[in-house]
Every structure is written in structure tokens, then in C-alpha cells.
Design brief:
The complex is a heterodimer of chains A (270) and B (290). Chain A is α/β, with parallel strands linked by helices. Chain A is built from eleven helices and nine strands. In chain A, β8 and β9 form a beta hairpin. In chain A, α4 packs across α5. The C terminus of chain A is likely disordered. In chain B, α2 packs across α9 and α10 packs across α11. Chain B has 290 residues and is an all-alpha fold. Chain B has a single domain, classed as ABC transporter involved in vitamin B12 uptake, BtuC, CATH 1.10.3470. Classes of the chains: A alpha/beta (270), B mainly alpha (290). Chains A and B meet through β5 of A and α7, α8 and α11 of B. Bound molecules: adenosine-5'-triphosphate (ATP) and magnesium ion. The site of magnesium ion has 4 residues of chain A, from α1.
Chain lengths: 270, 290
């Protein structure tokens, strides 16, 4: 089922106080990819994720997940909000926050099962935060906070992950570790969508891209999307980086492409 | 015996407020307690006028409805009309409170509710309104029984709803993404705050409920970064304020509720100084260790 459509956004228009922030966005994402959502500040990336998660009401259009409405498949979806969207002085430990990944409407009034606690522990271990499990979240660095959010999302054991800027405030080593974790998910057949800021690294990180600036500029495999025409359209004249893009692409494309890329085809065993 | 009843009643009200106030604080809605405690006034007056009695269950209903009304009004102004949250709160409750005051003053002939009592309450009268059990051998003040039941209800609520309160307070968007109805949780929680406010109204008065909702939780928040400890500390500060406040009032021949809140404020000051000193000494330690 490699090429099943994981996510379909159909003619979505959304606005804040009548000012449209997303305009007739329309695309489909096949499952089993690591997808970058790119666009300048204020281009509507966060708003797109919020609409997919039904956290705000769209003006028109709809979103389907595995061909179904969100409420029917909610447990297959995991959302990682922007780190700054919460108060990190909230009195809670790392473990307590990651445990929230196992909360469901149906188990809120009950204790977590030991299998849930086990999944929490495994998620903490994956992001290298198990040693900090009993630490208070107010005592973490920015990068550690980010890892807590990712662990919480992993604990959900979803099939689609929507992450809003998971690499902001993270050091290079952690970024690499998180990326290989997410690539691992992709290789298991999961779909990972990541709002990302850094164009330079985007081309290496993702195999699919969604380029946004209120309107959808382009969505597709990175080779089709990552070219100067589309990037100029998204970022406007601002981008003196554009001249460098040629170099980035050239550097990436001519050395042999990772050979395991094509061979992975059969491995999505879920 | 009278002293014990007064202290017990004050402590039970203060501890109930401490539990709910802790979550109000964490939800950054401390002002909403203020809003509700004022907005229930027209509900109480209207219910009183309709039913003609002070003891009536309808008063509780009227006030709870007014509490919910102000919560919804604030949500509406903030989320739909996009007014700032503090402005939404300010407008909603002052408006409802004003209606309440007009109702009281306009019908003051018929209505035996006086404004001072509504604002400041009268905990000193608690021991005079007794309810007798088992043929008159056993008796408790009505207010003590009510505040005891209220405390048990609130404690039970917080214990059962702990996870839901925690996740909706910390990260409500994430809670929504899990399919949790944050609006329902908000309304249930605010109903608890309304009910508490209404039932505590006569005992400590509107203004002092606000203080009890905010001050002991804020004191606890300064001292710990663990939620369970914070709730426990808030309960302890509430209890100490009630006991100490009573004796302070007797000593100074002052208002009991006022003394309780003054003492709560004093604890807050101590906690502030303590947390400042502690963070400074941590910094010095870190410096010396380098
Ligand atoms: N709560 C809000 N109320 C009003 N306008 C908003 C709100 N949130 C976002 N906007 C506006 O909507 C537009 C898109 O915002 P959004 O947060 O989706 O952008 P973004 O692509 O995530 O930006 P960034 O890269 O800075 O995170 C911006 O112009 C912003 O000013
Ligand atoms: Mg954003």
C-alpha cells in the first residue's frame, strides 16, 4: 500500500478575521514520505497544519485523511505544535508531558495502563531523554523541550505526523538525530510532514515538498518543486539565496543518489 | 465550639478555592474567577426575586447559570469578535455585576440581601444557623455542612479529572488534536468555579473569594514546579490562612474573612522573598562551581 493517499487537502481557504491566509490550497500527499512544508514567514504554514487538525474552521474546502474525515481516523494522526505555543514554566515533568501522547478522550478519567507507560518510556529513549524523565520541563534547554514534544508525538504511534518547526532551537547533532528518527518512521511506511525554515538543508532532508505562500506554489517530489522559478514565486525577490540554490541542487544531485532510496519499495509492511 | 465551626468553614472554603484557583492560575485565567464571582450577583438576585427565599436551591441554579453565561460571553467576545481576552473579561463581568447592583438597589425594599454582605460575606454568623441531626443531639452550622460537601465535591472532581485538567491547561491545541473536547472541559471546570463562588458567597463574600482563588495558588506556584506539590501546598496555605486568620481577627477585633486574606497575602510575600533568595543562592552556587 505504498502509494495510498495519506492526506488530501481540497480547495482549502482559511482566514483570520476575514483576511485570507490560505487560498484554495489543493494537493494530495502519498503515504511513506518525508515531506517538507516550506514558505516565508506568515505564508500560512502553521495555519495549514491547524486546518488539517481541525483546530480552526476553514472558510471552504475540506481535508481527508486516508480518504476519511479526521474524526474517524484521529488516532492515526499526530500533531506537534510550535514549541513556543506552550508555557514551559507549567509545573510538569518530562514524563508527564510525554504521557499526554497516550491520552485519549476515552481514558482521561482512568489511570494509564502499564503498556502505555511502556510506550512512553520507549519514546523517551528514542529521543535520548530517558535520563531526564523526572526533570521538570521548566529546567530544560530549548532543544530538549523540542525533543520532549517529539517524544510525546512518537508515543502516539500514529501513521501521519505533522510537525511545526521541530528543528528550531536545536543543535546540529540533535537535528541530525531527530532527522534520522523521522527518516526511520518514513522507512516504516509512515508519513511525516515537517514545517521547515532552512532552504539550504531542506533539499537534503526531504523527498517531497510543499511550497506555500498563501497560495500553493507547488507540491510534489523535491526534484520537481525545488527549482528557482517556484522558489522565486514563493519567496519573491527577497531571496538572494536563490543564486546559491543552483549550487545546492548540483551538489546534491550529481553525487550518486542514496542507492537505498528505490530499493525501499517493498518494506512498508503495515 | 463556635470558633471551631468558623475556622472549619473558612478552611473548607479556602481549600476548595485553592484547588480550583490552582487550575485557574495555570490556565492563565485568574481574572476569570474575579469575573464569575461578580457576575453571579444578578443570578442570585433574580433567583431570589423569583423564589422569594434565601435558602433556596434555585439561588444556586440562578447563580450557576449566570456564571456559565459570563464564561460563554467572554468566550464569544474573545474568540468570535476578537476582542482581547482581558477586555472581554472586564466588559462581561462589570456589566453583569452592574445589572445585579441595580436589581438590588431597585428592589431593596422587597429584597433582604444587603450589598455589604454580598461583597464581604459574614463568616462570624456561621455558628448561628444550625441544622440538627438525630433528634437534636447533634448539630452543625448549615454553612459548615455546605462548605464540607463542596470541598469533597471539588476534591473528587480534581482527583477524577486530574489528567484532563492537566492536558487542557498545558496545551489545549494538542488536547484538541487528540479529539478531547476542550470546550466541554472548560465549561465543566468553570461550572465548578461558579458553584464554588455561589456557595461561598454568603460565607466570605465576593471580593474575598477572588483573593482565595488567586493568592494561595500563586504562593504555591512560587515554591514548586510540580503540579501535585503545588496543589498540596495551596491547600496547606489555605488551611493555615483560615486558622491563623481567625485568631488574628480575634486578637485585633477585626473582620475574620479580611484577616484570613491578609494572612494569605503575608504567606505570599514570604514565598516571594524565599523564592528570590533561593534563585539567587542557586546562581551563586553555579558561579562558585565554575
Ligand atoms: N491568531 C491569529 N490571528 C490573526 N492573524 C493571524 C493569527 N495567526 C496567524 N495570523 C496571520 O496569518 C498569517 C499566516 O500565519 P501562520 O502562522 O500560518 O504563518 P507561518 O507560515 O506559520 O509563519 P512562521 O514561519 O512565522 O511560523 C500571518 O500573516 C499571520 O499574521
Ligand atoms: Mg508557523
Amino acid at each position: 500500500m505504498e502509494n495510498q493517499t495519506a492526506l488530501e487537502v481540497h480547495n482549502l481557504t482559511a482566514s483570520y478575521q476575514r483576511k485570507p491566509v490560505l487560498w484554495e490550497i489543493d494537493f494530495k500527499v502519498p503515504s511513506g514520505h518525508l515531506i517538507g512544508i516550506l514558505g516565508p514567514n506568515g505564508s500560512g504554514k502553521t495555519t495549514l497544519l491547524r486546518n488539517i487538525m481541525n483546530l480552526m474552521e476553514a472558510d471552504s474546502g475540506y481535508v481527508k485523511i486516508f480518504g476519511k474525515d479526521l474524526d474517524e481516523v484521529r488516532s492515526r494522526l499526530s500533531y506537534v505544535p510550535q514549541r513556543e505555543s506552550v508555557d514551559w514554566n507549567f509545573p510538569a515533568s518530562v514524563r508527564e508531558v510525554v504521557e499526554m501522547g497516550r491520552y485519549r478522550p476515552g481514558n482521561l478519567l482512568r489511570r494509564l495502563k502499564s503498556s502505555d507507560k511502556q510506550k512512553v518510556k520507549a519514546a523517551l529513549e528514542k529521543v535520548g531523554m530517558l535520563a531526564y524523565a523526572d526533570r521538570q520541563i521548566s529546567e530544560l534547554s530549548g532543544g530538549q523541550q523540542q525533543r520532549v514534544f517529539i517524544a510525546r508525538s512518537l508515543a502516539q504511534e500514529a501513521d501521519i505526523y505533522l510537525m511545526d518547526e521541530p528543528f528550531v532551537g536545536v543543535d546540529a547533532a540533535t537535528e541530525e538525530a531527530i532527522l534520522s528518527l523521522l527518516s526511520g518512521l518514513r522507512d516504516e511506511g509512515k508519513t511525516v510532514l515537517i514545517v521547515h525554515h532552512d532552504l539550504q538543508s531542506a533539499y537534503q532532508y526531504f523527498d517531497w515538498m510543499i511550497l506555500l505562500n498563501t497560495r500553493l506554489i507547488a507540491a510534489g517530489p523535491k526534484e520537481e518543486v525545488f527549482n528557482s522559478t517556484y522558489l522565486r514565486e514563493a519567496y519573491g525577490g527577497k531571496l538572494n539565496l536563490l543564486s546559491k540554490l543552483g549550487e545546492i541542487i548540483a551538489r546534491e544531485q550529481f553525487p550518486l543518489r542514496e542507492p537505498d532510496f528505490k530499493e525501499k519499495e517493498g518494506s512498508g509492511d503495515e | 465550639m463556635e470558633a471551631i465551626f468558623i475556622i472549619a468553614t473558612g478552611a473548607l472554603v479556602a481549600m476548595t478555592c485553592a484547588l480550583l484557583g490552582s487550575f485557574l492560575l495555570l490556565r492563565k485565567m485568574a481574572m476569570l474567577g474575579d469575573a464569575i464571582s461578580h457576575a453571579v450577583l444578578p443570578g442570585i438576585v433574580l433567583a431570589f426575586m423569583i423564589s422569594g427565599s434565601r435558602d433556596n436551591f434555585s439561588m444556586l441554579i440562578g447563580a450557576s447559570l449566570a456564571g456559565l453565561l459570563v464564561t460563554l460571553l467572554i468566550e464569544l467576545l474573545h474568540k468570535k469578535i476578537h476582542l482581547q481576552e482581558d477586555a472581554s473579561i472586564g466588559i462581561s463581568f462589570t456589566w453583569l455585576f452592574a445589572i445585579g447592583v441595580i436589581l438590588i438597589s431597585a428592589y431593596t425594599e422587597q429584597v433582604d440581601l444587603d450589598q455589604d454582605c454580598v461583597l464581604y460575606g459574614e463568616i462570624a454568623y456561621v455558628p448561628f444557623d444550625l441544622i440538627y441531626f438525630s433528634g437534636g443531639e447533634l448539630f452543625f452550622p448549615r454553612a459548615t455542612i455546605i462548605s464540607g460537601l463542596l470541598f469533597l465535591l471539588t476534591l473528587g472532581f480534581v482527583l477524577v479529572a486530574y489528567k484532563g485538567l492537566k492536558i487542557t491547561s498545558f496545551n489545549s491545541d494538542y488536547a484538541k488534536s487528540l479529539g478531547i473536547s476542550t470546550l466541554a472541559w472548560h465549561l465543566v471546570f468553570m461550572s465548578m468555579v461558579s458553584i464554588t463562588t455561589v456557595l461561598s458567597f454568603e460565607i466570605v463574600g465576593a471580593i474575598l473569594i477572588v483573593a482565595l482563588l488567586v493568592v494561595p495558588p500563586a504562593t504555591a506556584y512560587l515554591l514548586t514546579k510540580r503540579l501535585k506539590q503545588m496543589l498540596l501546598l495551596a491547600l496547606i496555605f489555605a488551611l493555615l490562612s483560615a486558622i491563623g486568620g481567625y485568631y488574628l481577627a480575634v486578637l485585633l477585633d477585626a473582620s475574620i474573612a479580611g484577616a484570613m486574606v491578609s494572612l494569605a497575602g503575608f504567606f505570599f510575600l514570604l514565598a516571594l522573598i524565599f523564592s528570590r533568595l533561593r534563585s539567587r543562592s542557586l546562581k551563586v552556587d553555579a558561579y562558585l562551581n565554575e
